[in-house]
Amino acid sequence: xxxxxxxxxxxxxxxxxxxxxxxxxxxxxxxxxxxxxxxxxxxxxxxxxxxxxxxxxxxxxxxxxxxxxxxxxxxxxxxxxxxxxxxxxxxxxxxxxxxxxxxxxxxxxxxxxxxxxxxxxxxxxxxxxxxxxxxxxxxxxxxxxxxxxxxxxxxxxxxxxxxxxxxxxxxxxxxxxxxxxxxxxxxxxxxxx
Length: 193
Hints:
By secondary structure, the protein is an alpha+beta fold. The protein has helices at residues 4-16, 74-88, 141-152, and strands at residues 23-25, 36-40, 45-49, 52-55, 58-60, 67-72, 94-101, 128-135, 167-172, 178-182.
């Protein structure tokens, strides 16, 4: 489990990276509207507006063979988001989510739930309890779910029964694709003794 101070340090490192502070565009048509920066070699500061380039509130056309370095705008924000995502979700990480419902599943079908703060000691259920566990191994989604069942939950190497809370949502951290795996299903019997 990542400690919050470690995560904070990793995020600060990503934010301080120069990779998102100066983005060089050799093709001026690729500069997103709203980007601010400067041209090289002239050093002229400018912003890409919806109808062209603006410098000190005056429209102009850049000279040929100019390079634009963006230091603020959509491209920089996108690069920062990319750096933060790489920090938060390392490559080859599979996120395994598990949910347990404290009462009948049908209570969650009505879609009329209102989000209000909960008192941690008030008896008001049913509740849906979920948590997430990172699996950094290069394995299949089914194996990731089975490893959580056997190792994190210490449930042994026997296949769970349909009465066990053993349905996992496995998310590919690179694509965001989800797969629901019910480990009690006979399809996954080969993962157990």
